[in-house]
Amino acid sequence: MTIQNDTERANLIEAGRRLAAVLEALRMKVAPGVTSEELDDLAEQLIRGGGDEPSFLGYTPEGAHRAYPAALCVSINDEVVHGIPNESVKTLKEGDIVGLDLGLTHKGIVVDAAITVPVGQVDEESKRLLAATEQSLMAGVRAAVPGKHIGDISHAIQEEIEHAGFKVVKELGGHGVGDVVHEEPFIPNYGRVGEGAILSEGMVLALEPISSAGKAAVTLAPDGYTYRTKDGSRSAHFEHTILIEKDGARIITG
Ligand code: MG
């Protein structure tokens, strides 16, 4: 989506504010003993309570064989992204890390954001993985300036994750958003400065670094959605929807 006027811009900002509030409520709910289905139920209830729609529920991404069956993606430890919370229901345990990825549609505008949250006390490596991945998202946001390229964002994210000693998952990445959940351009989390499409004012993008504490290779589960690291190592995921403005990116879902 490219923002064309003040009304669209105001609706986008309000959509982002609402999604950020729901994600914050989910973050507060995370604790040992809470199930993935409880988190999904809460997400759907809060979104609908505000008069909005859960964007992921019923959405069929390109290449998928069926519609996504939940409002929220819940991806625990070695689950990378797109864990289905309400089919094989999982219970959070002390020491887990849990990725929560959520889309919200407000007045026809789709916003998308994700956080990875520690469950109780987690080990040092997991803390570093979460910090590096969140920092890489902020590095990507800072690189999202009109006149720069998609590759500048990709490169900034990759540098931050690899500098911390972790790997970038290459199969998945950011995307345009706003009119629908996934739009052009694809935004890899690795790349070179100056490569790819040029960024321009008004563009709405979802940046989403996805990292691995071990090897970068992932596999797709038979459910058609859940990605896991091949070697069983932990993975983290942070995402913001951003709007490219004259002087740089504004975080919409922060
Ligand atoms: Mg996304």
In whole angstroms, the N-to-C terminal distance is 19 Å
Secondary structure tally: strands: 15
CATH-defined topology: Creatine Amidinohydrolase
Number of helices, counting only DSSP H or I runs of 4 residues or more? 4
Name the assembly state.
single chain
Percentage of residues assigned to helices: 25-40%
Largest sheet: 5 strands, antiparallel
Bound molecule kinds, no repeats: magnesium ion
Summarize the structure.
By secondary structure, the chain is of the alpha+beta class. The protein is built from four helices and 15 strands.
State the main characteristics:
254 residues; alpha+beta; Creatine Amidinohydrolase; 4-stranded antiparallel β-sheet; 4 helices; 15 strands; 28% helix; binds magnesium ion
Written account of the structure:
The structure is a single chain. By secondary structure, the protein is α+β, with helices and mostly antiparallel strands. The protein has a single domain, classed as Creatine Amidinohydrolase (Alpha-Beta Complex), CATH 3.90.230.10. Helices cover 28% and strands 26% of the residues. The chain has helices at 6-29, 36-49, 124-143, 150-163; strands at 53-54, 72-76, 79-81, 97-106, 109-118, 167-168, 174-176, 183-187, 204-207, 210-212, 218-220, 227-229, 235-237, 240-245, 248-251. The longest helix is centred in the first third of the chain and has 24 residues, at 6-29. The chain is globular, with a radius of gyration of 17 Å. The chain binds magnesium ion.
